[in-house]
Amino acid sequence: MTTIPQTMKAAVLVPGNNELVIQDVPVPTPGPNQVLVKIAAAGVCHSDTFILSAALPDSRSYILGHENVGYAVQLGEQVTGITVGQLYGIWDGVPCAACMATGLPPALNSIGLGVNGGYAEYLAVDATELVPVPDGLAPEMASVASDALLTAYTAVHEVAQLGPGTTKKVLIFGCGGLGHLAVQLAIYYGATVYVCDFKPAARELALQLGAKQAFDLQDLTSLTTAGSFNVDVVIDFVANEQSFTLGKTALHGDAFAMGGLGPASSYVLVGFTADQLPLSAIDLILWRTNVLSVLYGTIDDMKICLDLLAQGIVKPVVKTEPLQSINSILDGLKAADGSIIGRRVIIPSL
Questions:
Q1: Which cofactors must be present for this protein to function (predicted)?
Q2: Cα–Cα distance for residue pair 213/204, rounded to 1 Å
Q3: Were 77 and a residue from 25, 32, 287, 290 both cysteine, which residue would form a disulfide, CB within 3.0 to 4.6 Å?
Q4: Buried/exposed 254-271: b ≥16 CB within 10 Å, e otherwise
């Protein structure tokens, strides 16, 4: 029988601090219909840097970490269908009903985003949020299915509508923690993939994963200005003014190639930023451009993502680090030096 301690280490968001605070906090007790999970791996997401920036004012103090897998160690009352000792991915799609009075969006009232998350040794979650991890899949690999891969899958398959046998040309901005997974998915479905990233190592990774070309911003600017580059779909994991302007221009070229009579092109926004993007209704209408957004995905799609990982169809680039490294990882995600490639994953037991 697993001995559960009374306290645990956790990385806590404290209002007014520009970094997380490692604290000793009580281990949560699972309530009715809840399961206590011992966190095995927690992916570090760029959106956490957005939370720390206080771009959306929030006076709450809580544990961050919304990309989690862990072992079920204790069941609350009325829980059925959960096996103690089994490794589970944690779907983060059930907002805290009691937290909705904040007036913030539902996504900011969920695990690791308004409610205690997985940058800790233990986490209590609703039993309905647990998805069994396929046998043989390492926790650090499985963790990306809880957010990075799930969001990329939603962007590529559900929103951009890419599926097996597609012949579309796709431009992906950002080959980072989510982008490098989207590259693999789009190529798996048959798309011709182009990548734009300012980091040389990220461009090299994109080419290794099968992208046809990988541009820096200057190269892509030259191509779009000359009108010699066009795509059917843009998936933007950066979502700043420069990427949005370049991406729209690449879609304009596709309209010219189709004589203006082809299907509408799609611009899929995924990047979690507070940047103001240059939107013009007349521009979008005349160029037949659909601008779409992505936030997370369904629990059924998370199951598909775990299967994609288990089958080796998608191979995340991950590096594991201890909980004490969380602030240096977040600093690396904010930095412009491109020091972080792929996904960083916290292992609390290290």
A1: Zn(2+)
A2: 10
A3: 32
A4: bbeeeeeeeeebbbbbbb
